[in-house]
Amino acid sequence: MKTNFGNVKTSRLRLTSLVAVAAVAVSVVGLSSAVAATKKTTTTKKTTTTKKTTTTKKTTTTSAATTTAATAATAASSSDRTKVALAAGWSSNVTVKASGSNITFTSNGVPSHEVLDTYLADGKDGKYVAGGVKSYSASFSFPITPTVGASSTSTGNGAIGVAISGAVFFNPYEGNGTKTVANDDNSTINGIPFIDACGGHPLPNGISYHYHGIPFCITKAVDTAGQHSKIIGYMFDGYALYGPQDNGGKEPSDLDACMGHTGTTPEYSGSTYHYHVSSKSKYISDCYRGVATATRP
Hints:
Blueprint: E1 27-28, E2 40-41, H1 64-72, H2 78-87, E3 94-99, E4 102-107, E5 120-123, E6 126-129, E7 138-143, E8 148-154, E9 159-163, E10 168-170, E11 188-189, E12 192-193, E13 200-201, E14 210-211, H3 216-222, E15 231-235, E16 240-242, E17 260-263, E18 272-276, E19 287-290
Parallel strand pairs: 10-14, 16-18
Antiparallel strand pairs: 1-2, 3-4, 4-7, 5-6, 8-19, 9-10, 9-15, 11-12, 13-14, 15-16, 17-18
């Protein structure tokens, strides 16, 4: 099943002029599904710098009871998990294959929704105007059937999972070692944002477009108000990642330290452990509940 995110309109930010006497339209690329591919122009509202928030990462030891529950939640058969993974709403720029005990994800690294021509980057002397989004070979393998860890483990920096848009997820923090929550440190210079209205941005060199929390252009396309979110990707331990909505459409109140819990989802017939992104800081997990075995094929 392929999902077209190209029709999701971005209206949350407006890029203003880099030159005081003239307005510059910022081109965006709308990568659509196999049905149509058209370039779109998106504007974004100028926002003010949000106060920087820092979060201290915690190491969590999981209780025996929690481990038992999580183990039971992985009871879905390998064939069922394979079917669910292959049937997720992957965009047309993504290829997913089941090979042995792994799922292999391959894309060009550029999300299928709109992106900007210019982003801010975070340097040692503060934020500066960088470039746009570049393609690269985004290829990862992760386990079909998760293995529950004796305790949670840190995700580390860089990609921690893959998104159905063809992009990747990062942990909540900026990559400068300060544990600064990236979404809480969003700002603009002359209207150019650090993080765009879809909730993502590239690295300073333009590659590895990624999300530090809710990928708004994905969840807007696949989620329905009042219902549990759909799969928006997979973490590298093999557990599915969902949008912010639990059953009934509200955000879950029982997430563990890794922002996951055991419950029913639209794709599985029984309860299963899964992650959620959240509208509340820290927005996305900074630890794995399962054993992460992601590799580049």
